[in-house]
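Standup, Tuesday
Yesterday: got the pipeline producing structure tokens again.
Today: sanity-check two examples.
Blockers: none.

Example 1:
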Amino acid sequence: MRLGSEQALQRLLHTWEGVVANRPDAAIGWAQEIFAAGTVLESETALTRAATNPASPGQSRTELMNSVFGGKVSGEVLDLLGGLARDSFKDSEDLVEAVSRAGVETLFMSAQYANRLHDVEEELYRASRVLSEQRELRRTLDDKSIDAGRRQGLARQVFGSWSPETVALLEHGVESDQQIIHQLRRWIGDAGRRSEHLVAIVTAAQPLEADQEERLTALLAKRYGKPVEIHVGVDPALIGGVRIAIGPDVIDGTLASRIKHVKSVFAD
């Protein structure tokens, strides 16, 4: 992927992670919708050319995505696809790759928020070992003359008891034109890079100022001993203060929780 396209993808993924942070339970379903859209874009070359045509205004490219995928994917995924079309991807191949990578990163986000990213990374490694040793299985999963649904079914039969994100990645991998073993090795690296930092979901009664976000980020990084990326959501029902969720840890300093505690004391 070209540098400009890579930069555009990273900008969009940063925004997208804020969306996923507020609905981590929906992330696996969203990833599957993204992969399905990517399959359409890869097969419809006229569509991808139109969606990356530099002579067409960004809003027109977004409207094109809306006309193709509206009603077929969730509103959140439709916004993501529209943003991908609106940004500066240099050609159709870059757009198709960006959509695939957005789906993969969505699954890693899901695993991280569920505190099982390490498990997914380990399972991807184990899958690569299994497929390296079981050549017949690897050849079958890579055989494009076999219906993709049948190959996905085989992947579920072999690996279906693993983490749902790992299973979804394997299903996507066997549908892709690339060899599954190469994709697994790349995803292991991607999962490892993501695990180098923590993600904090911060919910506040009102938006935080930039300096407040910076101070909070520094405090959390000091407490946990590694870089922390925060995503802030707003919930006026909290009245005041913030609630912070990092993996299994929840730090609730909201006024609403204190009021609830006081009420429970008097109720007792």
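Example 2:
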Amino acid sequence: MVEKIDVVSTLHFDKAFQKKFDSLIGLDQEKESLLFGLKIILDENGIASWKKKHHKDGLPFLERIKSRSPAIILSGDVGCGKTELALSVASPLSTLMGGQTIKVFETPTDIRAGGYVGDISKRIVETFKDAKSKLTSREFGILIIDEADDLATSREQMQAHHEDRAGVNVLIKELDSLERNNGKMAVILITNRGGSIDPAIKRRASLQIQFERPNPETITLLLKGILDGIKYTDLELQSLVKQCIEKQPAFTFSDIIRRIGENALVKSIKSDSPLSIETIRSVIEKTKPSPEFKQHE
């Protein structure tokens, strides 16, 4: 017998999550894509209002949009902001949907449990069941499945044993069930290995967003955020950008914000000295970029 799943949930709108969403610098395209992708899935009233305003005589093709899959896939290397964006997007979405209440559910980190026969499938079913049971008639939901490749690994891969294949089948059934019967809950699947996700799940996804490591323009924006409140010249800023882009592989968002920015701040506080270009430069010099996560296509 599988232990009862109790999915952790957060309620939105929430100022703290809105602030987190706003702080994700350099992800404007990804933020907009996810935000409006979720609106299309969940905001039936908003879509109906748009239709009434612009197509009073009807728009048959709109039915294709209205019947889109509730699944969205976020893929890309580690430390590129996928999870932080998924966890915070519900607050701006709530505003976009006219103040509707949205609950965000996170799957348990041990959802695979021991991987014994039947366990994965039953835990997937219980996760969806618990999330849906916690939604009232006036609420919308977003179920986040992090490290989705643990549950949705392609059934064509040789190493995928029977239990994994059964789990993928059940996940597909749950997504199809949401599409047919619910319309009030979206599912965000997050993975570092987009190439390993089962093709049937990819085909069902209404949106797939690929996250990349920051380019020089984005690195500049991230460093400007770190340097806000510090006097510096354009030449000094560009020297830091140059120092970052000379590293191989490229730094991730997490590398720049946490391992460089936050570590430089801690170093300054520890030495009782102001945060400075020199401190940041020294931290960049000593920081090795996170290794690239190798895809398995």
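Quick observation on example 2: Residues 162-181 form the longest helix (20 residues). The CA atoms of residues 70 and 178 lie 7 Å apart.
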